[in-house]
Design a protein that fits this description.
By secondary structure, the protein is mostly beta strands. Helix content is 0%, strand content 38%. Strand 4 and strand 5 form a beta hairpin.
């Protein structure tokens, strides 16, 4: 699934999450999740649609934002 700098599918693609990639969820805006993940080039951050991210722990309410942000 593609990673974007903002929660918009028409925004530039800045990365890709592959099946099995572990991510830290930093924020949620609508159906989008701001994630941090590790690549061979180092740590990256961006927004990805939450439809393809399997959440294995409850998401704290304070991560859900009314507007996109960059913590």
């Amino acid at each position: 699934v593609w990673v974007h700098p903002i929660p918009d599918e028409n925004a530039e693609r800045i990365g890709e999450l592959f099946r099995g990639t572990n991510v830290d969820i930093l924020a949620i805006f609508g159906t989008w999740m701001q994630v941090r993940y590790l690549t061979p080039e180092g740590q990256k951050e961006g927004w990805s649609t939450g439809f393809y991210i399997e959440v294995i722990e409850p998401i704290p309410i304070w991560l859900i934002t009314p507007t996109p942000n960059n913590p």
